Amino acid sequence: MFYTRHLFFCTNKKADETGCGFLGGEEAFVIAKKHIQALAIWGEGKCRASKSGCLGRCESGPVCVVYPDGCWYTYVDEADIKEIINEHLVLGRQVERLRI
């Protein structure tokens, strides 16, 4: 496995101005990438965050998913994103209050 955990953020922007891209998906990705790098857990054999097109969970948006665990999250702010990273990516504990 190239990454131990890979966090995908939906950044899709639909023509009708809906989608996670309009709900903070881009900003969430940037926050996640910087936080993962700051924790020195970024890269081969470690973790990574990536942008994604539509993940099909629009009704729960904004959304992200952690692989290989297949754990789906929604989030509201920077604190939520950092909690997902600190708890799930670093400690391997799912953040139940943010799961969908």
How are the SSEs placed, and which strands pair?
Elements: E1 5-10, H1 25-38, E2 47-52, E3 63-67, E4 71-74, H2 78-90
Parallel strand pairs: 1-2
Antiparallel strand pairs: 1-3, 3-4
Helix pairs in contact: 1-2
Can you count the helices?
Answer: 2
Please name the CATH topology: Glutaredoxin
Amount of beta strand: 15-25%
What count of domains describes the coordinates?
Answer: 1
Provide mean pLDDT, rounded.
96
User: Order of strands across the widest beta sheet?
Assistant: 2-1-3-4
Helix content, binned percent: 25-40%
Tertiary shape: globular
- Can you tell me the CATH architecture? 3-Layer(aba) Sandwich
Class in CATH? Alpha Beta
Q: What's the CATH H-level homologous superfamily?
A: Glutaredoxin
Q: Low-confidence parts lasting 5 or more residues at pLDDT below 50?
A: none
Total number of beta strands: 4
Q: Radius of gyration over alpha carbons?
A: 13 Å
State the distance separating the first and last CA atoms. 25 Å
SSE run: EHEEEH
What about the largest sheet?
Answer: 4 strands, mixed
Structural class: alpha+beta
Task: Please provide a written account of the structure.
With 100 residues, the chain is an alpha+beta fold. The protein has a single domain, classed as Glutaredoxin, CATH 3.40.30. 27% of the residues lie in helices and 21% in strands. It has helices at residues 25-38, 78-90; strands spanning 5-10, 47-52, 63-67, 71-74. Helix 1 (25-38) packs across helix 2. The longest helix has 14 residues, at 25-38. The radius of gyration is 13 Å and the shape is globular. The mean pLDDT is 96.
